Request: fold
Amino acid sequence: MHKITLQKVKLIMCLLFVFGYATAQVNLDSLKTELNLMVYNNPKEALRRVEEIYPTITNPSMQISYLLTSANAYAVLKNHDAVMEMALKAKKIADEKGSPVNRLQVSGFIGGQYRRLGLDDKALLYINEAEEVFKTEAIPDSLKYLGGNILIVKGLIQRTSLGCEYALPYFKEAANVYKKYV
Reply:
């Protein structure tokens, strides 16, 4: 009888742990959505909340997501050094423990930031990295539109650097990605 009770207790503890983890994940997801909206209305408050929550996050994908939320808030505030600091922290995690989607998102984000700053040579390094991930790694169909975004940025870089005729193939390829997956 004592063994059955101990087994039940172990089962209940295990279920509570799994349920608690799932609930925490849902809370982090919903909070992330709220913060992503707040970034544009109140970036300082979004940063404060991310700084408060980030130390408790252990999931690499969530860490990356929250760092990119911070980077976006800093972008709204036009603090480009902080944008790159957050993005490069996210890249380190993505490269070490992240999924292909994480690597695609982070490299694309950094490439886009360098593009906005007019640093097309640096942008192209990260965009090429993101494109490689898109073309060689397993990306869920629901997120393949990200590859189209990468190709658009690459086309913009090529247009600025080399002219429209060099950009057009990337724009066409992006259009094909969007037609297929959006």
Notes: The mean pLDDT is 87. The helical segments are 2-41, 43-53, 60-76, 80-97, 100-116, 120-136, 145-162, 164-181. The radius of gyration is 20 Å. Residues 9 and 66 are 36 Å apart (CA to CA).
